[in-house]
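Dear colleague,

Thank you for sharing your sequence with our group. We've completed the structure prediction you requested, and as agreed, I am returning the results in plain text so they can be pasted directly into your records. Please verify that the sequence below matches your submission; if there's any discrepancy, let me know and we will rerun it promptly.
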Amino acid sequence: GVVVAQHLLRGEPVERLRYDRGRLIRGVEMIRLVGEALEVTSEGLRSAARHAAICRARDIAAYVLRERGGFSYPEIGALLGGRDHSSAIAAVRRAAALQAAAAAARQAAS
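Please find the predicted C-alpha cells below.
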C-alpha cells in the first residue's frame, strides 16, 4: 500500500507492483473531497506547507482516511505527501481532539 501510494502520487508507473487500485483511488478521492470541503487543494494537503488552514485540513483528511477509510497509518502518511506513520498518528489525534472539542461546545450551547 505505502509504496504504491508513493509511486502513484509521484506519477510513476506501478504496473509490476501488487496493490488494490480501487482502495488507493478511494483514498485519493477522500483527500480530494476533504480538500474541497475545506477549500484546500489536494496538492496543498500533500505539500510540506505549514499554514494553519492547510495543517488543520491535513489533520482532518488523516482522520477521515483512518476512521472512514480504514487506512493504516503508513498508508495515510504516504497518501498525504510521503509522511511517516508517526506524523499520521499525530494528525489523527489532533483531528479527534478538534472533533471532541466541537462536540463539547455544541453540548454546552444546547
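Summary note from our side: Residues 14-18 have pLDDT under 50 and may be disordered.

Kind regards,
the structure core
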